[in-house]
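Before the break, one more example. Copy the sequence into your notebook; we will annotate it together after we see the structure.
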Amino acid sequence: MKKIASLLLLAALACSCGTSKLYTPDGTDPGDQEVNLGYQKIRKRDSTSSTGTVKVERGSGYTDIYEYLRGRVAGVDVNGTSIRIRGERSINGSNEPLILVDGMVTDDISGISPDEVKSIDVLKDASSTALYGSRGANGVILITTRNSNQ
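Here is what the structure looks like once it is written out:
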């Protein structure tokens, strides 16, 4: 009896391996989400770079974009108005990531309300250096606002 039960259990496990798909709470496949690379948008499953995406919903209750971003993307540390992607990289140089708002480089995003933001894409690896040069060496944060045409 124990042999039959264990064989049935193994058969059930073998049938289920590799056939299940991961879905987000809204019922979509996370691999179908688009990632903004700055020059084009591609599906997350087609991307080989380490990225993180945050879709910002209206009425989140946050008034500060830094507070909204804190804890939402793995590898991104937000302390006050300082953002670090994957830790400290330089002892003497700047460790701040390159920040683009609707394609324009900016140093200060404190004036942006989370309700104005449509999505935030974070490029965390060497591909950001290849795309944006040495300024992207500490990572790149791409912010798309609701009133942009992107």
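The longest helix spans residues 2-16. The two ends are 63 Å apart (CA to CA). Try to locate both features in your own notes.
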